[in-house]
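Lecture notes, unit on protein representations.

Consider one protein chain, 473 amino acids long.
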Amino acid sequence: MKYAHPKGLFSLSHVELCTGFVSFALLSLLVLYLIHQLHLPSAEAYRYYGVLISLTYTMPVLGGYYCDHFISKRAGVTLGVVLLVIGNFILADPEPIALPLGLTFFVTGLGFVKPNTMSIVGDLYTHDHHHKEIGFTLFYALLNIGAIAGPVVLGIVGHLKGWSIAFTINGAVMFTGLLVFLLHYGRYYSDTPRVVKRYPLSTWFVTIVSLAVIMALEYGLFRESWLYRGVLLISTILVVIGLVIVGAKQRKKQRLHLLGLIILILAALIFFSAELQFGSSLIVFVSQAVPRTIFGVTIPAPVFVGLLPLFVATGAVTMSPFYKRLKKHMRAGRYLHRCIVGLLLGAFGFLIFAISSLPTVITVPGLAIVGLILGNFFLGNGEVTIAPIINAAITELAPQKLQSTFMGVYYFAMALSGYFAALLASAADWLGPHGHHNPYHFTTTFIIILCVLLFFAFVGFAIKPWLTRLINA
C-alpha cells in the first residue's frame, strides 16, 4: 500500500523552499550589493558578510529556545517569516542607513524559521521513523532547490532591473511562504504555548521586549566592528571555559572522546572559513575579473553562485561509494580521514581558483569559467565530506546528555567561520597597499586560502594515529 506523507509537509516544505531561496540569495549576493550599489570598500563589505554569517548560525539557537520556552512553534515560524519579509522590504531601500536595520530583521527572522520548521516536520511523523527520514529528505531537497534558484534569479533581476526590485521580489517570495503556511497549518498540526501558565507576564510581552534587546545588539554588531570582535572574543572565552568545566565532570574515556570531537569541529571551522568565500572573494572575482561573455551573451556574475549548492546537492551521490569503503576499512578512524579528505578537496578547489585567476588564464576565452565550475565541484564535495561526519561524530562520541550541547558548539564554530572567512577574503590586502589594482590580487588570496587548508590537512595527517587512539579509547 502506497504511503501518503502528512499533508502538513507541503506547507512546511514550501516555507523551507522560500527560506532557502531568500536566505541563500542574500548570503550569496550581499557583497556584490554592498560594493556595486552602496559603493562600500571591499574590506567593509566582507565585514558585513562575516557578521551576517555569524548571526545566521547563532540566531537559530536562540530562536529554538524561545519557541521551546515562551511561544509555540507555529507562532515562531509565523513571527520569523514576517521578520524576513520586513527585512527584505527594508533592504529594498537603497539608503545606506537601511542596510544594518534590514539585515537585523533578516537574521532574526531566519533564527525563528530554521529550527522550528524542522521540529514541526519531525512532530508530523510521531513514531514513524522510516517515513520521517524520507520526509526530511524531501524537505531538504526543496531547501536545496531554493538555494540553487535564489542567487540565480535574484542575481539576474538585480543585474537587469536593479537591487531594489530584487529585494522586493525576495520579500514577495517569502510572503507567499507565509500565506501557504497560515492557510494550511491549522488543518494538519496544532500546538499550544506552554509558558502562559509559568510566567505572570504576557507571553508576547516577554518575547517582544527580549527580542527588541537582541535585535538592538544585532544592529550594533552590524554597525560597529569593535563590538562584533568583542562579542566573538568574549563568547569564545565563555565557550572554552564551559567546555573545560564539562570535560572535568566526565570520566577519562569520555574526556578523550570529547577532546577528539573538538578537534573534528575545529577541522570543520577551517573548511567552512574557506568555503564561505563563495559569497565574498569568489563572487567579487567573478564580477570583476572573469570574462563572462559567451556567444555574445554576458552571463551575470550571480549565476555562478548557484554552482556550489548544485554540487553540494549532487555530492552525496558522487561520493557515497567512496565513503562506504572508507567506513568499512577505517572504522573509528574514518572521522579524521573524512575531515582530511574534505580539507584536501577544498584545497584542490582553491588551487583551481588560483590558476583560473592568473592574468594569462583569464585572457583565454572560457577557461576561467571552466575553472570556476571545477573548483566549485571540489568545494561542494568537500562540504558533503565534512559536514555529515561531524554530525555523526557528535551523536556517537558525545554522551547522550551532552549531544545538544556539542551541536551548539558546532554551530558556534560555524559562527566563528564567518569571521575568519572575512579575514581570509581580505588576506591579499595584508601583503601590500595595491589591493585590487594588483592583477595578482585574487590569485594571492586564493593561494593563501590554499596554504591554510593544506597546512591543517597535513596537521591532520600528523595527529591521525594519536586521534584514532583517542577515539578508540
